[in-house]
Specification:
It is a single chain. By secondary structure, the protein is of the alpha/beta class. It folds into three domains: about 210 residues, FAD/NAD(P)-binding domain, CATH 3.50.50; about 110 residues, D-Amino Acid Oxidase, Chain A, domain 2 (2-Layer Sandwich), CATH 3.30.9.100; about 60 residues, no CATH class. Helices cover about 35% and strands about 25% of the residues. It is built from 14 helices and 22 strands. The strands form four sheets. Strands 1, 2, 3, 9, 10, 11, 12, 21 and 22 form a nine-stranded mixed β-sheet that branches. Strands 6, 7, 14, 15, 16, 17, 18 and 19 form an eight-stranded mixed β-sheet that branches.
Length: about 400
């Protein structure tokens, strides 16, 4: 049995994926009066492996979406900065509040995604949970909707624009043949929640080790999210369970070993990966990709949630303009790809540079020691982590010289 919606009773946009990228796109389109359907195979609230770190720029976008006060009311924890710890135990403080009067937020995806879904419904978005996208519908080269299954029935959802916001393993991108293999880096993210985990000074933490890195962020209800990134081959070649591997790996970080020993893990260890992802293009005739579906490199600088939200802003702006012009062809949506390049290009280049430090423990130790004693370098890096300064600042010869000179 098939259900079709088209013409005057159809959708202006069918958004596939109910995470931050999809919900931000849907909310902003609905606020502009567009008819939106949001489809996700999960039922909310749902658990999602994530760093669960909402940086200062992401807070601005949450406020714009009408979600910031809701997140605070749900128990989200505001904190002032990140403590960066090198493999040798050297530390520097990236203080958003001292630098720019800003803060970050720790909130589980269980809570954040549910709040965003509820906001979508309030604005009239038709939210379809438990709905699995099986294919993309086309007329010639033009994408006109998706074919999905819901409660054992086939459902054809027609929309003037289809938004693929369905993550690393995007069904929309796959069905359109847009996925491109990336040989390096091949990493996986693992995450779990802990209780009774000592964390002080209203700070999150980022620990760089000899075989990866690990972020720690406070969460609602007194929990702490611990998220680790390691080489995929290490997890595939592990001895024992993923949970055993995770806790053994945490014990290799000097700054975490004792605290993990006294804390209590209260959720399973969940994973997502491979993390690196790229696609041939992010928009075309009747479609665009947003969030991780549009490509992802490395989460060290905390770009996961903020990039999803910022991408949602760019997507909604491009789609709304295309709908108003009645041109949802590749040409009509081309402004989106250009906007993404302008907004994200410096961050991607900075991420490549950061990898040179992360993959070299000695270099990371050296750099953290230097940054800790040089306020201008610490301020520049703080702004990049918080996404309120152009990441290009860390690519400048002046920053590199100030950081690396003896």
């Amino acid at each position: 049995m098939s259900e079709r919606r088209a013409g005057g009773s159809g959708y202006d946009a069918v958004v596939v994926g109910g995470g931050p990228a999809g919900t931000s796109t849907a909310i902003l389109l609905a606020e502009r009066g567009q008819r939106v359907a949001l489809v996700d195979r999960a039922r909310f609230p749902r658990v999602k492996a994530c760093a669960e770190f909402v940086n200062p720029e992401a807070l601005r976008i949450l406020d714009r979406l009408g979600l910031l006060e809701r997140a605070r009311a749900a128990g989200a924890v505001e904190f002032h900065g990140m403590r960066l710890v090198s493999p040798g135990g050297h530390q520097t403080l990236l203080d958003f509040y001292a630098d720019a009067g800003r803060s970050a937020l720790g909130i589980s995806r269980w809570a954040l995604d549910q709040l965003a879904i509820e906001r979508c419904r309030t604005l009239g978005v038709e939210v379809m949970e438990g709905t699995q996208v099986r294919g993309v519908l086309r007329e010639g080269a033009q994408v006109i909707g998706v074919r999905a299954s819901r409660a054992g029935q086939s459902v054809d959802l027609l929309g003037r624009v289809v938004v693929g916001a369905d993550g690393h393993h995007s069904a929309v991108s796959r069905e359109l043949g847009l996925d491109r293999p990336r040989a390096w880096p091949r990493r996986i993210g693992l995450a779990a929640h802990y209780e009774d985990f000592p964390l002080s000074d209203a700070l999150g933490e980022m620990h760089v080790g000899r075989n990866g890195y690990c972020g720690v962020a406070p969460q609602e209800g007194g929990r702490v999210n611990v998220a680790m990134v390691v080489e995929l081959k290490r997890v595939e070649g592990r001895v024992g369970s993923v949970a055993e591997f995770f806790e053994r790996a945490l014990a290799t970080y000097p700054g975490l070993r004792e605290r993990v020993g006294v804390a209590r893990r209260v959720t399973p260890v969940r994973g997502v990966g491979p993390l690196a992802r790229r696609v041939q293009r992010v928009s075309g005739d009747g479609f665009l990709l947003v969030g991780d579906a549009a490509g992802f490199f490395d989460p060290f600088t905390g770009e996961g949630i903020v990039d999803a939200l910022r991408g949602g802003e760019l997507a909604a702006e491009a789609i709304n303009a295309a709908l108003l012009r009645d041109d949802v062809t590749a040409r009509g949506l081309a402004a989106y790809a250009a906007a993404r390049k302008q907004v994200f290009q410096s961050k991607r280049r900075a991420a490549w540079l950061v990898q040179a430090f992360v993959r070299s423990p000695g270099l990371m130790d050296y750099a953290v020691r230097r940054i800790a004693g040089r306020d201008d370098c610490a301020a520049a890096l703080t702004g990049v982590f918080g996404d309120y300064r152009d990441a290009g600042v860390v690519l400048s010869p002046r920053f590199l010289w100030r950081t690396l000179r003896p």
